């Protein structure tokens, strides 16, 4: 299953001569690992935030060992069905 994610690129947008911000890009990548964590306590403990580990594109700024971490936006990925995945202690592995 491919996911639409956003990540920081090596390109920089200079705001002033001493400050900048990274330019972000969108990609559709296959996750290798997905982590989930509860939104809070009580009723919110049944809802989750999802973060994936993806193979890093060539222009990714914060890549470690060829992988990047990126949050999974459920609105951009309506095909993502976490209830159909097999979770092992809040971790799914491809």
Instruction: Please indicate the percent range of residues in DSSP E strands (runs of 2 or more).
Output: over 45%
Number of distinct helices: 0
Rg, Å, rounded:
15 Å
Structural class: mainly beta
What characterizes the major β-sheet? 4 strands, antiparallel
Distance between the termini: 10 Å
Q: Describe it for me?
A:
The chain is built from no helices and six strands. It has 94 residues and is mainly β. The protein has one domain. The protein has a four-stranded antiparallel sheet, with no helix packed on it. It has a two-stranded antiparallel sheet with strand order 1-2. A hairpin with a 2-residue loop joins β1 and β2 (19-29).
What is the strand and helix layout of this fold?
Elements: E1 3-16, E2 19-29, E3 33-38, E4 48-55, E5 67-71, E6 91-93
Antiparallel strand pairs: 1-2, 3-4, 3-6, 4-5
Can you give me a brief rundown of this structure?
Helices cover 0% and strands 50% of the residues. With 94 residues, the chain is mainly β.
Key terms for this structure?
50% strand, globular, 0% helix, 6 strands, mainly beta, four-stranded antiparallel β-sheet, two-stranded antiparallel ribbon, 94 residues
């Amino acid at each position: 299953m491919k996911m639409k994610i956003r990540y920081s690129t090596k390109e920089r947008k200079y705001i002033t001569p001493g400050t900048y911000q990274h330019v972000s890009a969108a990609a559709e990548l296959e996750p290798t690992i997905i982590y989930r964590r509860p939104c809070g306590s009580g009723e919110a403990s049944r809802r989750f935030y999802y973060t994936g580990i993806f193979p890093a594109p060539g222009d990714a700024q914060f890549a470690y060992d060829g992988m990047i971490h990126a949050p999974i936006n459920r609105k951009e990925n309506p095909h993502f069905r976490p209830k159909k995945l097999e979770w092992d202690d809040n971790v799914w592995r491809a």
